[in-house]
């Protein structure tokens, strides 16, 4: 099941899909390993559409808030995600705070 989060990538707050696959047994997540995320762009009210896949250095990526499954409606075949209104309110606040 995809895991969505509000994240800051190089200063911009956005919706990302992060892989939920754990690291192989015995492996450690490294602060030097790049993260592969799917980035979704805001399209309309609570609708986001898949934009692109990005490989991001950990220094450029901050997960601000994981989003609970019940707060998203993911239509994988269409590449769209709908967010609950309370999540949208938090996204707007995080976006405004990031611009300051």
Describe it.
By secondary structure, the protein is α+β, with helices and mostly antiparallel strands. It has one helix and seven strands, in the order βββββββα.
Q: What is the terminal separation in angstroms? A: 34 Å
What's the count of strands? 7
Largest sheet: 7 strands, antiparallel
As a percent range, the share of strand residues is over 45%
User: Averaged pLDDT, please?
Assistant: 85
From the helix content, strand content and strand pairing, which structural class follows?
Answer: alpha+beta
Rg, rounded, reads 14 Å
Order of strands across the biggest sheet? 5-1-2-3-4-7-6
Order of helices and strands: EEEEEEEH
Shape: globular
Q: Could you name the ranges where pLDDT drops below 50 across 5 or more consecutive residues? A: 23-28
Q: Number of DSSP helices?
A: 1
Percent in helix: 10-25%
Structure, briefly:
The protein is α+β, with helices and mostly antiparallel strands and 100 residues long. 15% of the residues lie in helices and 49% in strands.
Task: Provide tags for this entry.
1 helix, seven-stranded antiparallel β-sheet, globular, 7 strands, 100 residues, 15% helix
Topology:
Elements: E1 3-9, E2 12-18, E3 35-44, E4 47-56, E5 61-67, E6 72-75, E7 80-83, H1 85-99
Antiparallel strand pairs: 1-2, 1-5, 2-3, 3-4, 4-7, 6-7
